[in-house]
Amino acid sequence: MEKATFGAGCFWGVEEAFCRIKGVTSTAVGFSGGKTVDPTYKEVCTGKTGHAEVIQIEFDPSRITYDDLLAIFFRIHDPTTQNRQGPDVGSQYRSVIFYHSPTQEKRARAYKEQLELSGRYDSPIVTEILPAGPFYQAEDYHQKYHQKNGGSCRYIY
Fold this sequence. Notes:
Blueprint: E1 2-8, H1 11-18, E2 24-32, H2 41-45, E3 52-59, H3 66-75, E4 84-85, E5 88-89, E6 95-99, H4 102-118, E7 128-131, E8 135-137, H5 145-148
Helix pairs in contact: 3-4
């Protein structure tokens, strides 16, 4: 198994996008990329911790590739908006990929460059690509939020 960590706006929707993808064995929502140790959701929402709302995915690379996950990541959000996704505004909603290995870094940078050259977007891609640091799991009520509250997976690939 391998891990992938992505920030693409509100982590509830991001988790929902990856919830039923074949080859994804588990997901958890939480926070990464900030300076506060073990932050709460309320603290992250202030924008003062430096954390992004993220999803950490465990996946089976024999069933789904990291590039496949990158394709989903870039498809489910707007990677050209700085600190904003839809109605959610703040640095915690930034577009970011936290890589767990040199291979993931290389693949993420290549994928982003390929997208930039494709002309798909009118504006530059602002997605950050950073080494994975500590991942702090969000409170239980955030985990599988849409599943617990009657939502359904909108992104099935």
